[in-house]
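ok so i was messing around last nite and threw this chain in just to see what happens. nothing serious, just curious
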Amino acid sequence: MNNPSYITNQDIISLLCRRLKEYRLAARISQREMAEKSGVSLTTISHLEQGANQNITLGNFISLLRVVGQEQRLLELLPELPMPPMALKQINKLIPKRVRRNSDDTKS
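result:
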């Protein structure tokens, strides 16, 4: 993932599925255990890990992440904006677009 502009959606899904498998193996969880704990079918998990099927719902992916204890990482994908867009819009309305100088300002 060195140059994101050249990575397709399928490439990203494949990468995520490979990483999910690595996390599953590191946690010493079998595909069958993962299926039982997540509610995602064993066939689906097997196909994802083999790269045979790249159609996974976000709900299923989150369920699989929960099993390996990584669901909190999803929050890092789209962090909360530092300021809501509507609040920023209100602040921008208060910022003057031009500065007018009084004749008193020019005398010093």
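not much to say yet. The two ends are 59 Å apart (CA to CA).
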